[in-house]
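User: Okay, second chain of the day. Same drill as before: sequence in, structure tokens out.
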Amino acid sequence: MISSDNLKSGDKIPSERELSERLNVGRSSVREALRALELLGLIETRRGEGTFIRDFRGNQLVQLLGTFILQDEKAKLDVIETKNLIEMDFLRLVLNRADEDRLAALKNLIEDEKFNDDRFFYELIEMADNYLFSRIWLILKDYYNSLNVRKVEYNRNSYFTLIEALIEKDEEKTLSAYRQLRNLSILADKY
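Assistant: Same drill. Structure tokens below.
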């Protein structure tokens, strides 16, 4: 319903009565489901105003699910590997879709003191202009950030090298710069 009604973070959802009628279920079932969604931090009830969709990014849902799904080391490594593969694929899209002005703006962002890896790759995925890739990457990024792995501080020069390769529209240089950034020399022959 949220998707079909095109509801976004901050939007009010229908009342319990309306939900009960639209979903053809009892009000107690709706009330119970809303309570569960509120406990997960996905909705927020404001007394006298109604129930609203919350911004789910950064909430504990990913960490909660991660504790069940990502219990073994193999699963953790799979998340990291899959995130890297997705990033390499959307870099290929950026090569074909991004213009020099957007890449130059991203180059300037690297110098910003608030710059970080997630922000950099979020900007790139926006340039890739592929909604599904974007959704998958955001989920993988959240899972990755919830893992208890040592967070890597990347060298800013590696980001500049990657941007330069993208501006040159050179796929080989771009993927090489990405592998260097992520320290994936072992995977170089594989991908």
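The domain at 1-56 is CATH 1.10.10.10 (Arc Repressor Mutant, subunit A).

User: Thanks, on to the next one.
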